[in-house]
Amino acid sequence: MVNLVLLLAVNMPIAHGNMANNNMISNDERFAVDQRGKFVVYKTEPIADGVSFSDINQQLTNYLTQKGNHTTTSGGNRLESWGSVTMKKHAGIGNYVGGTINYTLVVENDEGELNYWFTDLTYQPYRNDRYGKRVKASVSPIPLEKKMSKVNDKVWNKQRGYAYETIDQLADEVSSQLKAVGKSKIVTTSMGE
């Protein structure tokens, strides 16, 4: 009897995968951390020749306003924008919107180079209402830096990973907007003269 119990106890981690060696990367390593201890997604782009910060400001303000953000400019070389983006993945069960990530985007001109970063990242979870519709949960947004209990730690790390992917995709969209500044929007083609 003792041998049977020992055999089951030894084979269980082999049959179900070793729980100690999960293949999830710690999502704390994906985010950079600023001096306040907040998670940050930081990017840098060179400013193209002949493009001023006011041109960049106008392009980004138009783009971010279309996304529903609130934008302000300060000092002539700094733009700040507050908004949210919907997460496409969720760590829970089901293929539905898990929530939104609220963020602050800061863009600064640093002598010919644009530094921009997303900070103050918070997760606003969603839930199903009684009709099955996805609505915001009645909890305050959760800062992504927050540590969870051991019970919720795996799911929270996975959720932070999805949040990083969402913000990184948004950073790529901002980068494409920055590269479009100063380029002609009219394309000349030959129409068979």
Task: Outline the low-pLDDT stretches.
Answer: 1-27
- Assembly category: single chain
* Topology as a string of helices (H) and strands (E): HEEHEEEEEEH
Mean pLDDT: 79
- Structural class estimated from helices and strands: alpha+beta
Global geometry: elongated
Main β-sheet description:
8 strands, antiparallel
Instruction: Give the CATH topology.
Output: Alpha-D-Glucose-1,6-Bisphosphate, Chain A, domain 4
CATH first level: which class? Alpha Beta
CATH architecture: 2-Layer Sandwich
Cα-atom radius of gyration: 23 Å
Helix content: 25-40%
- Beginning-to-end CA distance, first to last residue: 93 Å
Q: How many distinct helices?
A: 3
* Domain module tally: 1
Percentage of residues in DSSP E strands: 25-35%
Number of DSSP-assigned strands: 8
Report what the structure shows.
This protein has three helices and eight strands, in the order H-E-E-H-E-E-E-E-E-E-H. By secondary structure, it is of the alpha+beta class. Helix 2 packs across helix 3. The N terminus is likely disordered.
